[in-house]
Amino acid sequence: MTSSVGTRTLGDLRVSTLGLGCMGMxxxxxAADRTESIATIRRALDLGVTFLDTSxxxxxxxxxxxxxxxxxxxxxxxxxATKFSLSRTDGGMRIDGRPExxxxxxxxxxxxxxxxxxxxxxxxxxxxxxxxxxxxxxxxELVAQGKVRxxxxxxxxxxxxxRAVAVHPIAALQSEWSLWTRDLEGEVLGVAREHGIGIVPxxxxxxxxxxxxxxxxxxxxxxxxxxxxxxxxxAAFEANLRLVDAVRTLAEEKGCSAGQLALAWVLAQGxxxxxxxxxxxxxxxxxxxxxxxxxxxxEDVRRLDEIAPTTEGSRYPDAGYTYGxxxxxxx
Length: 331
Hints:
By secondary structure, this protein is an alpha/beta fold. It is about 35% helix and about 15% strand. The strands form three sheets. Strands 3-4-5-8-9-10-11 form a seven-stranded parallel beta sheet. α1 (about 35-45) packs across α2 (about 60-70) and α7 crosses α8 (about 260-265). The longest helix has 21 residues, at about 235-255. The radius of gyration is 19 Å and the shape is globular.
């Protein structure tokens, strides 16, 4: 089926203009239905949303298996992205960028996904104990072996990006970017673009908040991680509702939903930007896909830029989880 959402490029990798984040099908956002999740992925391919994003840590491997099942028989239609370096421990998350772990994780991901090659392989978080040159060097070996086509980084700092590209070209940087998360627009965005790296915003709908569907913390299921997220707590939650109200007002003027407007804003940030809104339902997928048809004027963008800096609360409970740096070699 001809893509209805169009295409963009991340480095030398051509992908659909919108991707599909698959994490919520396995963790974080309450219960998911396996049958509906697989149907959502297959419907995405029908709509031309062929850039699929997963990770070995999502559901501790469950998500890769799910994606692999969903794309069976349609592999040639898909630009498949997955990640490594994060794993769960009793104390939280562990980051491991050692070369031997790169190789072991890639083999395990290929097996779970049921594919011979990964189109885009990200380091999920920069390891603060392993020089990034060593990690990217091992990732580059996977490219030479034909197991991976393109390399990516996620939530990497400007310094990490500069050091990584000295080892091997980086096609994409995946980081949070939306109307309520503008941190990327500082140094990191400029450095990525300086090196021809495409931008893959995750949570472009503010973890669902910008859709306007969330009006109270009570809207979350018991096992939804947003219950404990700083931006969904107390005074921060109430303050952030003002941003949603402003987005909804402009969306009504544009004849689209608040979520579509929020996605259109991300898409308007450049042709090198490919957001990956996550969903586990076909109805939301179809609504998100229609965002590519929303045209924003310069005045629309200006109005949105004016209201966006009002977000309250940090991005994560652990502020050290973002924009990671690795040690210098020999340090």
